[in-house]
Amino acid sequence: MTEWDKEKLVSLVRKQGLSLSQNKLHHFSQWLGSLDPEQKISQASVIKAIKKFKSPSNLALRLLEDKLVVPRFTRFSQDIQEIFELTQQIEGGAVANYIPQLQRMSTDAFAVSICTIDGQQIHLGDSDQYFCVQSSCKPINYGLVLEEHGEELVHQHVGHEPSGSMFNELSLNDKCIPHNPMINSGAIMCCSLMKPHLSMADRFDYVMDTWKALCGEHKVGFNNPVYLSERQSSDRNFAIAYFMREKGAFPPGVNLKNVLEFYFQCCSIEVTAPLMSIVAATLANSGTCPLTDRAIFGPGTIKDTLSLMYSCGMYNFSGEFAFKVGLPAKSGVSGVIMIVVPGIMGICLWSPPLDTTGNSYKGLHFIRSLVDSYNLHTYDTIVSTEQTKKDIRSKK
Ligand code: GLU
C-alpha cells in the first residue's frame, strides 16, 4: 500500500506535468499546505481527504488514482525532449517573406508545447516568445460561425472539400463558394458571417475573448505591425473577396473592406506556444478548456472543425499529412502548427522556416518522429502497433 507524505505528493504533481498553481488543484494545494512535512499518510486517507473538498477536485482524484490521460508522463516527457533535441539540429526551409514582419523572424526559434486534456504540460525551447497565429485562426473562426449560425447555413457559403490549389488561390468551387474554411477565401467568408451586426471593435473583442477563454483565461496579444503589413499587401485577398462578391457568395449586406480588415486582425493575434497548446487541448477536449473546465465550443462544432482540419488544414500537404501523421492540424505562415490528438492532448509546434508546402520545416519533422514512436495516428488502433510504437495511454 502506497504511503505518502507532503514532499512525495508535491513531487507526484510535478512528475505528472501538473502544477499546484493550477485552478483545478486549488483545494488539493490548500490541503497540502495544511500537512505537517513529517506526516505519513496512506493512499486511502489522501483519497478520503480529496473526496471531502467542497468542490471535489476530480483532477486530484484522477492523479491519485493513476487515471490521468497520459499516465506515464515522465517517460513521455523524456521522449519529447529527445525528439525536440534531434529536431533542433536539422536545418531547412525559409521564413515567409511576403511581409517584412514575418521575414524578420528568427530562423533558429523553435518551441514545442503539449497540454493534455487533464492539463499535464510540457514546454520546450522558445516558449516565452509570441508569434502571430496567421492561418491557425481559421479553425477558430470557423468554429465560432458554426456556433452562431449552425452547420447548414455556414455551408451554404463555404464547402467541405480540399481545394488542391494554393491557400490564396483565386478560385471557387462549382457552386461558386470557397472550397473550405481553412483557405483564405473560406476564412474571409467565415469573417463575413461572424456577428455581422456588431461594430468592428466589438467583433474583434468577441474573437479576442474567445481566444482568451481557449487559452485558459490567459491574455493573448495582438501584433499591430503585422496587421498593418497584411493590410498593405492585401491585393490578393481583396481580389478573392471581389471575386466572391461578383459570384454572389457572401450573405447580403457585407462590407468587404471591414471583412478583410477583420480577417487581417484575426491573423495578427499573438500567442506563445504554451498558450497555443492549451487552445489545441481545448479542441482535443471536445471544446471545453482543460484548465478552467469552461465550455467554449460544443462537441458538434469540434467534430466539424476537426474533420476539416484533418482534410484541409496543412495547405497542399493536407492529404499526405493525413496519410502519414493522421491527426487534425492547422498550420500558419508564422511557422506554427497546431495539432489535436482527440481525447488526449493538444500540441503546438513553432519554428518559422517553412518548407515548400508552407508548413514549418522543423514542425513537420517533429510530429513525424513523434507519430513514428507513439500510436497517435487516428488509424493506429486498426493495426497492431504494440511491437513498433509506444501506447500513450499505457500504464506500463
Ligand atoms: N495572412 C495570410 C494571408 O492571408 C495568412 C497566411 C497563412 O498563414 O496561411 O495571406
List keywords for this structure.
396 residues, alpha+beta, Beta-lactamase, three-stranded antiparallel β-sheet, 17 helices, 44% helix, 9% strand, globular, binds glutamic acid
Question: Would you spell out the secondary-structure blueprint of this structure?
Answer:
Layout: E1 3-4, H1 6-15, H2 26-33, E2 41-42, H3 43-52, H4 58-64, H5 73-89, H6 100-103, E3 111-116, E4 121-125, E5 131-132, H7 138-149, H8 151-154, H9 184-193, H10 200-214, E6 221-222, H11 224-232, H12 235-246, H13 256-267, E7 269-271, H14 273-284, H15 299-312, H16 318-324, E8 329-331, E9 336-341, E10 345-350, H17 361-373
Antiparallel strand pairs: 1-2, 3-4, 3-10, 5-7, 6-7, 8-9, 9-10
Helix pairs in contact: 5-17, 7-9, 7-15, 9-12, 9-13, 10-13, 11-13
Bound molecules: glutamic acid (GLU).
Assembly type of the shown chains? single chain
Structural class: alpha+beta
Present as ligands are:
glutamic acid
Query: Helix share of residues?
Result: 40-55%
Q: Total number of helical segments?
A: 17
Q: Which CATH class of the largest domain applies here?
A: Alpha Beta
Q: Write the CATH fold name of the largest domain.
A: Beta-lactamase
CATH superfamily of the largest domain: DD-peptidase/beta-lactamase superfamily
